[in-house]
From TrEMBL:
The keyword Cell membrane applies. Belongs to the SURF1 family. It comes from Citricoccus alkalitolerans. Pfam families: SURF1. It is a multi-pass membrane protein. This is SURF1-like protein.
């Protein structure tokens, strides 16, 4: 088979198969590289960025956009307080209570969208703080909205209670455009203008004398997720690469076997031709000998000539 493989056409075919296989392997590597979705590094998520530059409203939040510490300016919309229950405070073994969420009118939002802001935690709906008024600067963590709850919206004497912090439910409740997410506020400070004594004053859950306790959401666990569809595609490309080499070997093997069959047919034909040719020559030789004897007998006579090939010799 080596002799067949060294033919120019099969050397060219091998080069072509290797090039195709290399392309398929590179495509498989590209699919494998795209299968892993690594979260942003903590140095990126913990560096505050402007909300309007990081995330746009009426758009699904991707993993690379969530968990980011953001800043935004604006003011709270009056009479938009809602409670989210149940929410634990102080870890898995902490007390069960409520998140107090209010609509925050974001400066620079494209169409006047609001951002749901978790202002703090409370053990009871009767222990709350009114939303701060005026121009405010908020620093907090941007998180994806939750799905709506089958329990829906409950209206109580102390306020409206929801089971999940779902943007779809808040939009219907507030009747305003909203970002598809929410912000857990770390700091809420006033913006009283240059020279104002109230400028930079903490007025959120961290302020002294309030009923609310701060909701500090830490960075989410850094886990790399994998898209199995991309992994399957990568495996397919590797299989295609091996199949290209296999096709070259199969065609080479077929050519080799075909040449072997042709050589065997040539050998059989040569043997049969030799046997037929030998028989033909023998027949011609006997025929020539017979004619020669007939000519000799005709010329000298049968009685004086040598014994005919057709007559048996007499016993002595």
């Amino acid at each position: 088979m080596l002799k067949t493989a060294l033919k120019p056409q099969w050397i060219a075919g091998l080069v072509l198969a290797l090039v195709v296989s290399a392309v398929f392997v590179l495509l498989g590597k590209w699919q494998m590289d795209n299968s892993a979705s690594a979260p942003p590094p903590l140095t990126q998520t913990e560096t505050p960025v402007e909300l309007t530059e990081h995330f746009v409203p009426e758009k699904a939040m991707y993993g690379t956009e969530a968990d980011q510490v953001i800043t935004m300016t604006g003011s709270f919309v009056p009479h938009t307080d809602v409670f989210i229950h149940p929410r634990l405070h102080g870890g898995p073994e902490g007390a069960e209570g409520y998140w107090l969420v209010s609509a925050f009118q974001v400066d620079g939002a494209p169409n006047g969208e609001v951002m749901p802001v978790v202002r703090g935690w409370t053990a009871s709906t009767t222990q709350t703080d009114p939303a701060p008024r005026g121009d405010l600067h908020i620093t907090g963590r941007l998180l994806p909205a939750e799905g709506p709850s089958p329990e829906g919206i409950q209206h109580t004497e102390d306020g409206t209670v929801l089971a999940n912090l779902a943007s779809s439910e808040l939009i219907n409740l507030w009747d305003v455009r909203s970002y598809a997410g929410y912000v857990a506020a770390f700091d809420v400070v006033t913006m009283g203008g240059p020279g104002s004594a109230a400028n930079g004053q903490e007025v959120g859950a961290k302020a002294a004398g309030g009923e609310l306790e701060p909701v500090l959401v830490g960075p989410q666990p850094q886990e790399t997720t994998y898209n199995w569809m991309n992994i399957f595609y990568a495996i397919e490309w590797v299989v295609f690469a091996g199949f290209a080499i296999f096709l070259w070997w199969r065609f080479l093997r077929d050519d080799y076997l075909r040449s072997q069959d042709e050589d065997e047919l040539d050998r059989q034909w040569a043997e049969e031709w030799k046997a037929a040719e030998l028989e033909r020559r023998r027949t011609e030789a006997l025929e020539a000998k017979r004619k020669a004897i007939e000519e000799y007998e005709r010329f000298y006579g049968a009685s004086t000539g040598p014994t005919s090939v057709h007559q048996p010799q007499e016993n002595q």
